[in-house]
Amino acid sequence: MSEPIQHGSIIGGVVATPDLDAALADYQGELGFALVEQGVVPDELARAWGIDGLAGKRIATLKPTSGAHCFIRLIEQPLPSDFVPTTTFGWASYEITVQDAFGWPAKIAGSGFGVIGLPKEIPGLPYFVAMQVHGRGREMLYFNETRSSTPSSDLPFANSPMDHIFIVILATPNREATVAWYRDRLALDVGDTYTIAYSMINNAFGLPSDTMSSLTMVQKGRMPIVEIDDYPPQTRVRRADLGCLPPGNSLVTLMVDSLDDIKADWIAPPAHLSGPLYSGNRSATVLGPAGELLELVERA
Asked: Which residues make Cβ contacts (< 8 Å) with residue 62, sequence separation at least 6?
């Protein structure tokens, strides 16, 4: 049984990829996601995201076989040669709840996914086993096998080998200000803050392995949503080519109770868009405080 959709639920993540056919082979054939639809980015979606040149680019929409209402959209566009994951502000990773994390490195061997962090338990965070991969578009995915809920949040157990996105990670220049933005603009709750030796950040920047970073969970009640991470001073703004999405992990979609209650400067006025993710409901997109593209869909 999939978790009920509520205010703040993650219902989508967009990945920019340089080769849609190869990426589909990875996400369908290796990870087991089901293809829902395939075509080109419509004009109205490109306008809603504020990227007119995106219209006409190839797109594929997938969802987990668990039936969870959470979609991964792959959009084909050139990959900037200077894009290095985990070194820029914006969406850093999508965390997906999975079964048997320790079995996934062998399952994806020889695919377009490269393992950058083998499954392990994280000191100070005994609630899950996590591993990390990069895809063809240099997107980062965390595969998390839930062991237990945390004292302040409920972590979902996977209902298929590869299930849905349940946390999105945001790299930000000012963690406290970004947390306040999500709390005040989206009516979300502030969860726990952890300070850990974050290997993904330390490795990306060549920092000593014992360098500590702080992260804060933003959630709704006990449902985790956004992990907001402090990033070091040498972090760069993520550059997007003209007519293209930010590379890698490009855009996150959340469900909200009412767009009218959200305090945001929309890129374009709320509109009804077609497609399985929207279910005929209104949506609108905003630029968040770290330059992230955040799409909000209104519940019926």
From this structure: 27, 28, 33, 34, 35, 36, 71, 72, 73, 74
Q: Alpha helices, DSSP H only, in the chain?
A: 20-24, 43-48, 104-107, 175-186, 199-205
Residue 30 has phi, psi (to 5 degrees) of: -95, -45
Global pTM?
A: 0.96
CA dihedral 78, 84, 89, 90 (to 10 degrees): 50
The residue written with tokens 């949506």 in the block is: 283
Taking Cα atoms as reference points, which of 300, 294, 299, 272 lies closest to residue 13? 294
Instruction: Report d(CA 119, CA 129) in Å as an integer.
Output: 6
Assign residue 153 a region (left: φ > 0; alpha: ψ between -120 and 50; beta: otherwise). Answer: beta
Using left for φ > 0, alpha for ψ between -120 and 50, and beta otherwise, residue 247 falls in beta
DSSP states of 177-195: HHHHHHHHHH--EEEEEEE
Summarize pLDDT for 244-293 with one digit per residue, the tens.
999 999 999 999 999 999 999 999 999 999 999 999 999 999 999 999 99
CA atoms of 218 and 22, how far apart (whole Å): 34
**Rounded Cα–Cα distance for residues 286 and 182 (Å):** 12
Beta strands in the chain (DSSP E): 10-17, 34-40, 58-63, 71-76, 90-98, 114-122, 125-134, 140-146, 162-172, 189-197, 212-220, 223-230, 249-256, 271-272, 282-287, 293-298
CA distance 167 to 70: 12
Q: What's the CA angle centered on 294, arms 181 and 116, to 5 degrees?
A: 100
Rounded Cα gap, residues 227 and 94, in angstroms? 10
Q: What is the pLDDT of residues 69-100, one digit of tens each?
A: 999 999 999 999 999 999 999 999 999 999 99
Q: How many residues make up the chain in this entry?
A: 300
